Amino acid sequence: MEYYTAVLLAVLFVAVYSGTQRDFLQECKKQFPGAEPKDIQLYSASNDTKCFLHCYFEKKGIMTGHTAHEDTVMKFINPDGRRKFIDENKWRKDVRNCVTISKRDCVCDTAHVYYLCVLESISRNEKVQRNNSTT
């Protein structure tokens, strides 16, 4: 699971550091100065960190309030189609299920639980491509 956490965090934060993405990051960080983005993958993340995540998701169009937008999530996680899943339909169903099970009273908690659920779904369903070539 650590591999998938690193990959998703890399996608999240490498994308963030370019142009408008950087502006989104800075704006959300100003709103939630206590946020620790490196702690997003922790179940015990601070409220500021969870709200930072929700802020970013809203700015990227991934969420509106408590609602995650499945197609946007799919494009965000697999923008170029390089990721391969054991069963694409099962993975999409898992992501849809994450929307249902992640709803909480606080939108920040919803975003965080949704993120963790999608992260777990990736780790269960992604085909890990190994380099089998010999040198």
From TrEMBL:
Keywords: Secreted, Signal. Residues 1-22 form the signal peptide. GO terms for biological process: sensory perception of smell. The keyword Secreted applies. It comes from the Eukaryota. It is found in: Secreted. Coiled coil: none annotated. InterPro entries: PBP/GOBP (IPR006170), PBP_GOBP_sf (IPR036728). GO terms for molecular function: odorant binding. GO terms for cellular component: extracellular space. Pfam families: PBP_GOBP. PANTHER family: GEO07291P1-RELATED, ODORANT BINDING PROTEIN-RELATED. Belongs to the PBP/GOBP family. This is Odorant binding protein.
